[in-house]
């Protein structure tokens, strides 16, 4: 027979839920809300909110700050804000021509950023990951010298990932690489939880964090390869096995250029970074053809172009638009919105760092227990 959880267990889980709710309200609600404003927004009593806020302040997740300028009568209340000295996420990226690491604090500010430009293709995975581990260790050291506590690391890779294993990253020449184990072998990272995910997925999450709201969009990441992350009503859609978004291998010209994947005429061969440098109008047309397939199939209203597409966005926009207007059945009814990524080249590692901070945001009780 099933029994209800015992009272202390239930109370602990209610408290954990309410801590997350208060933290979320301060992060996403009005500017520097007072305790009373948090109570009003959450529906919790003022006494409950006050006790939770005390715990979050004592635990180093919230700080009390001057309130925003007064608009009404009465005594100005103390405002609340996320701390910039508490937990931090370490975002890492390995791509064909660079390695990167950044540290992001709970307010979403990038506090440290290291980028090393070097072609990773001739190197074996062990060497690339050892070099990245060195950058990551430097970033963590700098963050901790600033009083931040790095709670985890997440790595963005241009490939297919399952259960922490990079199954295949065609443009790096990687197959079945245990990137998590390699990073945790770096002594300065050995105690950190480390995760790995596809770079376009993480960039889409980075873009979602930067723009907020509950949007639906396709994020297209232009690197040497091309990946995409599909965000549906604020949630990343990964596909059944986590392999969705391989738009780089959508066929745009069936008898076209051979691709590294073994097929012909893939989008990547016309609109990947190297092709883009040679012929922007051809890249725009190829992107427009591939994106029209996505829009016709999924009714995605917004397409965000990131990575190498950001600096040439103005030049791409018209050419992509021509193809979308020509090929999307509903283009005359509702034009597809095309925009350039907010975060530019840093989107994937920012998104990676955000997945670490999301763990803290969703379960602040765990962070408070750790600090105790
Ligand atoms: Zn291909």
Automatic annotation (TrEMBL):
<dbReference type="Pfam" id="PF00480">
    <property type="entry name" value="ROK"/>
</dbReference>
<keyword id="KW-0808">Transferase</keyword>
<dbReference type="InterPro" id="IPR000835">
    <property type="entry name" value="HTH_MarR-typ"/>
</dbReference>
<feature type="domain" description="HTH marR-type">
    <location>
        <begin position="21"/>
        <end position="67"/>
    </location>
</feature>
<dbReference type="InterPro" id="IPR043129">
    <property type="entry name" value="ATPase_NBD"/>
</dbReference>
<dbReference type="InterPro" id="IPR036390">
    <property type="entry name" value="WH_DNA-bd_sf"/>
</dbReference>
<comment type="similarity">
    <text>Belongs to the ROK (NagC/XylR) family.</text>
</comment>
<dbReference type="InterPro" id="IPR036388">
    <property type="entry name" value="WH-like_DNA-bd_sf"/>
</dbReference>
<dbReference type="GO" id="GO:0016301">
    <property type="term" value="F:kinase activity"/>
</dbReference>
<keyword id="KW-0418">Kinase</keyword>
<protein>
    <submittedName>
        <fullName>Sugar kinase</fullName>
    </submittedName>
</protein>
<dbReference type="InterPro" id="IPR000600">
    <property type="entry name" value="ROK"/>
</dbReference>
<dbReference type="Pfam" id="PF12802">
    <property type="entry name" value="MarR_2"/>
</dbReference>
